[in-house]
């Protein structure tokens, strides 16, 4: 007769800490997308140019990726409680600075500060959740953590659209203040301090060179069109910084045994392939929101709050598919779920290519619902693929690598679609307007036409060109997911159940 294992009691105050950790996860995620539907109000208030809109998202995400990389070192060096509290305080300062920003540069700087503070919140929240719950509940609490993160990203546009329409765009940042206050007080009262007995070393040179390479590439893509590419000294500086940063990082990785991304991670085929797929997933996840809301608001004249509401089915389908797929037994092969999720995402983006100025809300909701279901199916299957063959000792770093790839995929994706959007808008405008002259227009209209009428016609052509350019960007997102589908066939089979 077997002896039952002794139960492990949860620490005191674990209920409050669980709520606080999940709330912090939600808050840092919802602030990624909450400005999405409110962008017309923010642009009008801050005189923000159209090609600066992508910075609202990419600045937050890129800054978050940098501090997320050093979270483990910070917690070991200074203590997780101290790091967590300072992160929440700086996050609140970023929220306040967003509301008082008077220019687009001030707003972007505040978003960068927010992003820097948000980086440690998600990984430390998960670590706290796993500590305050008993081992049999770890799978369930990890799922709850993932759901809160995705729910934050999915619900952000609806909340931001409604608040900005009725209470002004600064209210979208006031929304997070009460929750941040609750998290700070709960952590201060309930969480015990924990830090490493020995100071851990961290590869700051590797992180710095990699970050310089990524930031240089990001700025190059964001600013290139406005500054006429290599006719500008700034673009040359950013290009050189990116090339030198990536070069030094590659040399550093090849010549040192230990760095902030351990070489052992890249010896696991499943993890490497899953990282590439995760990058493609990030490339699709947030750029879709960054394209859809401006299209609905500026080109199809939907109210800001209605635009936000139209993202709700996508979020519901995403969370629902995530939960259902996570409940599938571990013995079931995950690869059909990967292929099924990718197929749904590709099909949804193919439906988006059929958008037109004459459509109603149904095609947008249908495509969003299918894309959300595909992403929700893909995420848990991708986690099983990445960690099913990975050494358990490497799983924390593997998780960080997967998250970083998804974050950088989103930032690069936003930059790429913005870049091609403005280039395509100009090309389509030239193609449509080349015959728009006073004499030819007057001939077709059966009378003379003046400059005001011609300007109105030019506005119509510009709107049509922008609509065509937006729809063309969904083709890029579809291709990004389509090209990684064959990688699924190179993943190793799941290990048989023990």
From TrEMBL:
This is Efflux pump protein. Its main location: membrane. One of its GO terms (cellular component) is membrane. Residues 17-496 form the Major facilitator superfamily (MFS) profile domain. SUPFAM superfamilies: MFS general substrate transporter. The chain crosses the membrane at residues 53-75, 82-102, 108-130, 142-163, 169-189, 201-221, 227-250, 271-291, 311-330, 337-356, 368-387, 407-423, 470-491. Pfam families: MFS_1. GO terms for molecular function: transmembrane transporter activity. It comes from the Bacteria. It is found in: Membrane. CDD domains: MFS_LmrB_MDR_like. It is a multi-pass membrane protein. Keywords: Membrane, Transmembrane, Transmembrane helix, Transport.
């Amino acid at each position: 007769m077997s002896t039952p294992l002794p139960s492990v009691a949860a620490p005191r105050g674990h209920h409050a800490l669980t709520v606080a950790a999940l709330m912090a996860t939600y808050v840092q995620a919802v602030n990624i997308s909450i400005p999405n539907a409110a962008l017309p109000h923010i642009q009008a208030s801050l005189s923000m140019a159209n090609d600066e809109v992508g910075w609202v998202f990419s600045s937050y995400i890129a800054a978050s990726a940098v501090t997320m990389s050093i979270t483990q070192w910070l917690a070991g060096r200074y203590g997780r409680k101290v790091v967590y509290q300072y992160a929440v305080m700086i996050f609140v300062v970023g929220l306040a600075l967003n509301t008082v920003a008077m220019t687009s540069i001030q707003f972007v700087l505040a978003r960068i500060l927010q992003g820097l503070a948000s980086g440690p919140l998600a990984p430390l929240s998960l670590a706290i959740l796993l500590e305050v719950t008993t081992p049999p509940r770890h799978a369930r609490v990890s799922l709850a953590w993932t759901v809160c993160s995705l729910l934050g990203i999915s619900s952000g546009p609806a909340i931001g659209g409604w608040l900005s329409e009725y209470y002004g765009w600064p209210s979208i940042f006031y929304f997070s203040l009460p929750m941040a206050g609750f998290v700070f007080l709960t952590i201060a009262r309930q969480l015990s301090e924990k830090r490493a007995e020995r100071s851990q070393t961290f590869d700051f040179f590797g992180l710095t060179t990699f970050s310089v390479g990524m930031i240089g590439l990001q700025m190059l893509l964001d600013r290139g069109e406005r500054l006429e590419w290599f006719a500008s000294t700034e673009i040359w500086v950013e290009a050189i910084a990116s090339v030198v940063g990536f070069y030094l990082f590659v040399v550093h990785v090849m010549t040192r045994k230990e760095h902030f991304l351990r070489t052992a991670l890249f010896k696991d085929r499943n993890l490497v392939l899953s990282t590439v797929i995760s990058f493609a997933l990030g490339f699709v996840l947030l750029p879709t929101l960054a394209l859809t809301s401006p299209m609905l608001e500026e080109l199809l004249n939907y109210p800001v709050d209605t635009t936000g509401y139209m993202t709700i089915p996508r979020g519901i389908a995403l969370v629902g598919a995530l939960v259902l797929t996570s409940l599938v037994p571990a013995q079931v092969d995950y690869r059909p779920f990967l292929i099924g999720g990718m197929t749904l995402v590709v099909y949804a983006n193919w439906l988006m290519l059929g958008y037109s100025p004459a459509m109603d809300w149904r095609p947008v909701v249908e495509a969003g619902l299918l894309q959300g279901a595909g992403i929700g199916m893909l995420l848990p299957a991708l986690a099983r693929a990445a960690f099913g063959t990975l050494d358990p000792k490497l799983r924390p770093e593997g998780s960080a690598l997967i998250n970083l790839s998804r974050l950088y995929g989103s930032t690069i994706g936003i930059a790429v679609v913005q870049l091609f959007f403005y280039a395509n808008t100009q090309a389509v405008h030239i193609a449509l307007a080349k015959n728009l002259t006073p004499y030819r227009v007057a001939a077709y209209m059966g009378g003379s036409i003046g400059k005001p009428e011609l300007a109105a016609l030019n506005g119509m052509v510009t709107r049509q060109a922008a609509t065509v350019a937006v729809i063309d960007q969904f083709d890029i997102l579809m291709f990004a997911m389509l090209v990684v589908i064959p990688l699924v066939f190179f993943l190793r089979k799941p290990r048989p159940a023990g």
